[in-house]
From TrEMBL, chain A:
Chief location bin: membrane
Keywords on record: Cell inner membrane, Cell membrane, Membrane, Transmembrane, Transmembrane helix, Transport
GO cellular component: plasma membrane
Protein name: ABC transporter permease
Molecular function in Gene Ontology: transmembrane transporter activity
Bilayer disposition of the protein: Multi-pass membrane protein
Recorded coiled-coil stretches: none
Membrane-spanning ranges: 20-41, 128-148, 169-190, 220-240, 261-288, 300-316
Protein source organism: Ensifer oleiphilus
Subcellular location: Cell membrane
InterPro entries hit by this protein: ABC_transp_permease
TrEMBL record, chain B:
Species in which this protein is naturally found: Ensifer oleiphilus
Taxonomic path: Bacteria, Pseudomonadati, Pseudomonadota, Alphaproteobacteria, Hyphomicrobiales
Name listed for the protein in its UniProt record: Sugar ABC transporter ATP-binding protein
Family: Belongs to the ABC transporter superfamily.
Region (Disordered), start-end ranges: 1-23
InterPro entries per record: AAA+_ATPase, ABC_carbohydrate_import_ATPase, ABC_transporter-like_ATP-bd, ABC_transporter-like_CS, P-loop_NTPase
């Protein structure tokens, strides 16, 4: 009889309050890490290093935002790392074939849309679990990319394209600007538009959403297309940054993206998540890697620290949610 | 039950041995003295003193939120009491954890089955108490033993079947059998028949009488008066956390009990107003689909059309078919005289059909989302201006439904899962009131809903009819459809088998048609 919990006035704290509070604690953690590294090293607060940090975090952050849309529907997209590698090959291939830059970019993004649509098709029409269909594309996309490049890499000679990732705008790396370019529409989409509400509803109870007139299939298509398109966009950024197309790049980035999302308060059970959370999560992970490098911590330790951090952050998040109840 | 004794013998620690010496029949077995539970400043159970006599069936009735669940949790050691004392077989006991309660022989069968759906029936019955041979489970022995227990109880259930393949009612019987074979002295049933068919209920009642015959004390919690009168020796009434009285069953009647529970009479609950019946809103001709066949009926403005039948008779499937959830395989639907093809839910909503589905948990609500989001879910397209949702309107609409329907919540941001059954039903209804409709389908709208909220829901029906809407009311609770329907259709095995005007047939007649004997 849950009426008693309500009558006693100890119902769960308002969801919004929790979300903002959690956002603030994460921001606090990030600032704390920055402060700590500033004190512990001389090189942290140098323009060079900050730019570097922002570049490092940017790509994971964009992947994490796309991943979050999918996780909110109670799904998962394991393919994003493979999509990044694959689309870096596509754009390099198109440029090498003499396709004009802007057409190459649009076509590459279109590949992202197609891959996402294929995932949704597998889930909605073939009834495959998201884990399976995206696991399948994870391996096949790497294979297709390797077939195209015959196992090697394709160099990109277009300077306008490769210079982009090194450029700054208003003193901030252009890669970081891309995070903002993705995050603002993503925020509007998830938190201000009805489609965002539908993502949450589908993730919470798809049958109830359907009986309330929500087009569940379309919502799932939307989530997976957005995730893959974000990944294709990151593929472009990566190709620009390393100047080659290589199908084996971005190995394990899907796990980085999922970790960022989960650190940012997204629930793998669906229906809980935000846009600012995974952004903070991605930059927390980037900061740890960056700081560990500066402090000369063995890179093997970095992986361990990241793992421990995921456990600790998600554990405290759950404690607070339970405490609020 | 020789099988049972044999099985419970292989485990005998001190407590269990104690539990196997019950007090003589008719003597107090469990006595609560001024038992109280507070959550913060709120008293969920005000100091209550109830004595349970050995071998009796003791019913506990009360609205949702009256403190029945709190009482069960205290007696089964799930929560700790704030103050008061419990005497078990005359001795003061702590009862502050579930293991102690189980070891003493106190068990509960919960309304929602808490077993493992992927394991076999036998594995569930022996869960945590497996028959071992040198550390290896003796699966066949367990299956045979479980089967003999089930057969002995007359349940006609296969012990080797996967639990999840059974109906919820059958699963509940398994849960009961599980409790029965653990040397239980004191068994609490929490609204056990909510999901049972009549046949399953009858089996359960036989089991309860049989356990009672063996000296087990039964505490039976229910909303349904006729069950209380069929089974119980004594009945205690709770209201707002207060124990308002205990009666011998022969010295009371349902009118008195309801008055004790809610301070309202039966006539006031089944609130019925008659309106002039208008034009047909929807008409089906020979409609067939998954789970129902050849159903022809008409709903007119201003009337309630009741669909009665056993669970699984095809009423909910018909409702879902009408709502476009499943495609019809044959037949026609006419909406206000025009032939229509309702291909999906959105089409149904656009025509003006609203569905409050059978299961709030599985179909009605996004439980881990806020109340406000649930209420607005059907109308976000209307609340959207340009790219974004108009926050002001979103908030206003949610707050208006919460206020109008008197949903007891501090805020629209509280999660739907934190609400009681009655308040959850109000959220479902609120969704459709804000969307608006010509035809409202209410599928089991009062299951798990307290009497006070029931009355509110029935009053709401009258308001909808007054505004020219039509209602299809689906219920497995005969008095409800009987007292409220202007026209009552009886379903059996997917077909419409009989139709009656308001109160034209007797309860017995309707029941016979539904069972089909």
């Amino acid at each position: 009889m849950s009426a008693e919990t309500v009558d006693s006035g100890t119902g769960p704290a308002p969801r919004k309050g929790v979300s903002i509070l959690f956002g603030l604690t994460l921001l606090g953690l990030l600032l704390f890490l920055w402060l700590l590294l500033g004190l512990a090293t001389n090189s942290f607060w140098t323009p060079n290093n900050i730019s570097n940090l922002l570049r490092q975090g940017a790509m994971t952050a964009i992947l994490a935002v796309g991943q979050t849309f999918v996780i909110i529907t109670a799904g998962i997209d394991l393919s994003v790392g493979a999509v990044v590698g694959f689309t870096s090959v596509i754009v390099a291939w198109l440029l090498a074939a003499g396709v004009p830059l802007w057409i190459a970019i649009i076509l590459t993004l279109a590949f992202g849309v197609l891959i996402g649509a294929f995932h949704a098709f597998g889930i909605v029409r073939m009834g495959l679990p998201p884990f399976i269909i995206t696991l399948a594309t994870l391996t096949s996309l790497r294979g297709i990319g390797l077939l195209i490049t015959n196992g090697s890499t394709i160099s990109i000679t277009n300077e306008a394209f490769t210079n982009f990732s090194r450029a700054d705008f208003l003193g901030v790396p252009s890669l970081f600007w891309m995070v903002i370019v993705v995050a603002i529409p993503a925020y509007v989409f998830l938190h201000l538009s009805r489609f965002g509400r539908y993502l949450f509803a589908v993730g919470s109870n798809s049958e109830a959403a359907r009986l309330s007139g929500v087009n569940v299939h379309r919502t799932i298509y939307l989530a997976y297309i957005l995730s893959s398109t974000c990944a294709a966009f990151v593929g472009l950024l990566l190709a620009s940054r390393i100047g080659i197309g290589n199908a084996t790049q971005a190995e394990g980035w899907e796990l980085q993206a999922i970790a960022s999302s989960v650190i940012g308060g997204t629930s793998l059970f669906g229906a809980v998540g935000s846009v600012h959370g995974p952004l903070l999560g991605a930059f927390i992970l980037a900061t740890i890697n960056n700081g560990a490098n500066l402090l000369n911590v063995n890179s093997f330790w970095q992986r361990i620290i990241t793992g421990v951090l995921i456990i600790v952050i998600v554990y405290f998040d759950q404690l607070r949610r339970r405490g609020a109840r | 039950m020789p099988g049972l004794d044999e099985l419970s013998q292989h485990k005998s620690d001190g407590l269990r041995t104690a539990a196997r010496h019950p007090v003589p029949k008719g003597e107090p077995i469990l006595e609560m003295r001024a038992l109280q539970k507070k959550y913060g400043a709120v008293e969920a159970l005000k100091p209550a003193s109830i004595t349970f006599l050995s071998g009796e069936v003791h019913a506990i009735v009360g609205e949702n939120g009256a403190g029945k669940s709190t009482l069960i949790k205290l007696l089964t050691g799930v929560i700790r009491r704030t103050s008061g004392e419990v005497f078990w077989c005359g001795k003061l006991v702590q009862l502050d954890n579930p293991q102690e309660a189980i070891a003493r022989g106190i068990n509960a069968v919960h309304q929602e089955v808490v077993l493992c759906p992927h394991l076999s029936v036998a594995a569930n019955m022996f869960l945590g108490d497996e028959i071992n041979n040198a550390g290896l489970m003796r699966k066949r022995a367990m299956t045979e033993a479980a089967q003999s227990v089930l057969d002995d109880l007359g349940f006609n259930l296969p012990a080797a079947a996967t639990l999840g393949s059974l109906t919820i009612g059958q699963q509940q019987l398994v849960a009961t059998a599980r409790a029965a074979m653990r040397g239980t002295q004191f068994l609490i049933f929490d609204e056990p028949t909510a999901y049972l068919t009549r046949q399953e209920s009858a089996q359960l009642f036989r089991l309860i009488r049989r356990l009672q015959g063996e000296g087990v004390t039964i505490v039976y919690i229910s909303h349904r008066m006729e069950e209380v009168f069929e089974l119980a020796d004594r009945v205690s009434v709770l209201r707002d956390g207060t124990h308002v009285g205990t009666r011998k069953i022969g010295e009371t009647n349902d009118a008195e009990l309801i008055t004790l529970m809610i301070n309202r009479t039966i006539e006031q609950i089944y609130h019925k107003e008659h309106f002039a019946v208008g034009e047909p809103i929807i008409e089906t001709r020979g409609l067939s689909g998954p789970g129902f066949e050849d159903v022809s009926l008409t709903v007119r403005a201003g009337e309630i059309v009741g669909l009665y039948g056993l669970i699984g008779a095809g009423r909910s499937e018909f409702a879902l078919g009408l709502y476009g959830r499943h495609a019809a395989t044959a037949g026609e639907v006419y909406w206000q005289g025009r032939k229509v093809n309702i291909a999906n839910e959105r089409k149904a909503m656009d025509l003006g059909i609203a569905l409050a589905p059978e299961s709030r948990r599985d179909q009605g609500l996004c439980l881990n989302l806020p109340i406000g989001l649930n209420i607005n879910l059907p109308i976000f397209n209307r609340l959207t201006r340009g790219l974004t949702i108009n926050r002001q309107k979103e908030i206003e609409n949610a707050d208006r439904q919460i206020r109008d329907l008197k949903i007891k919540t501090p805020s629209r941001r509280v999660l739907a899962s934190a609400m009681s059954g009655g308040n959850q039903q109000k959220i479902v209804i609120g969704k459709w009131l804000s969307h608006g409709a010509k035809l409202f389908i209410f599928d089991e709208p009062t299951v798990g809903v307290d009497v006070g909220t029931k009355a509110e829901i029935y009053r709401l029906f009258a308001r909808l009819l007054e505004n020219g809407a039509g209602i299809i009311l689906i219920s497995s609770y005969l008095p409800e459809v009987y007292e409220l329907s202007d026209r009552l259709h009886v379903f059996r095995r997917g077909r419409l088998v009989a139709s009656h005007d308001y109160r034209a047939a007797s309860h017995e007649e309707v029941l016979t048609q539904a069972i089909g004997v």
